[in-house]
Amino acid sequence: MTFPACPKCNGENTYHDTIQFVCPDCAYEWTGEEVAEDDEDQLIVKDSNGNLLSEGDDVLLIKDLKLKGSSEVLKKGTKFKNIRLVNGDHNVDCGKIMLKSEFLKKA
Ligand SMILES: [Zn+2]
């Protein structure tokens, strides 16, 4: 098993003390990002305020959005109920349309 190089000094003598990674060269300690990806069903989707969104949440649009390929504009403040989270660029399924979580906030 190999450990990632220290993000601070790039040292390769790092080890894992069961809670976090430790670099003996510069005493830097950090937790691996990979830990959160163990459960593949758990999508991490954050709204414009950095709050985690969950399946079934209600969200509000924070800005006017012009829909691609049409003249229709989604108005700021539009509410979408019972969202689903998906993997991808447009990571929130609002029923009729797919939106990016950065344009939404939890209602
Ligand atoms: Zn280091």
Automatic annotation (TrEMBL):
Q: Which residue numbers delimit the Protein YjdM N-terminal domain? A: 2-31
User: A Pfam family matched by this chain, by name?
Assistant: Zn_Ribbon_YjdM
Family annotation (Gene3D superfamilies): 2.20.25.10, SH3 Domains
- Where is each Protein YjdM C-terminal domain found? 45-107
Q: Which NCBIfam families match?
A: phnA
Question: Family assignment?
Answer: Belongs to the YjdM family.
What is the protein's name according to its record? Answer: Alkylphosphonate utilization operon protein PhnA
